[in-house]
Design brief:
- The chain is 61% helix and 7% strand.
- The chain is mainly alpha-helical.
- Helix 2 runs antiparallel to helix 3 and helix 2 crosses helix 5.
- The longest helix has 15 residues.
- The radius of gyration is 13 Å and the shape is globular.
């Protein structure tokens, strides 16, 4: 529902991804397991839909996961922006 609302409001997709990260990874976590993985996959999907790849290594993902609980939304947006790579067009 949040994604649909954000799309209708035409929020910047980086803000949408940061909100997803914030909503899914933080307490209360919506799933028993895999909240981090679910948030990252959904974030990658949203980035792809806007023509970007959210690219990071496994070790970078682990570093983010360790810092995530203490990061402010602005820090999440910065991290996302630093890891976006434009997809090549035809």
């Amino acid at each position: 529902e949040d994604i649909r609302r954000d799309a209708k409001l035409e929020r910047p997709f980086i803000d949408m991804i940061a909100a997803i990260f914030d909503d899914i990874e933080r307490d209360p976590q919506p799933f028993q397991d895999c909240n981090h993985r679910t948030a990252m996959h959904l974030g990658r999907f949203i980035a792809f839909e806007f023509g970007y790849n959210l690219r990071y290594s496994g070790s970078e993902g682990e570093r983010l996961r360790e810092r995530w609980p203490d990061m402010q939304i602005g820090e999440l947006k910065k991290w996302i922006s630093q890891h976006l790579v434009a997809l090549k067009g035809d």
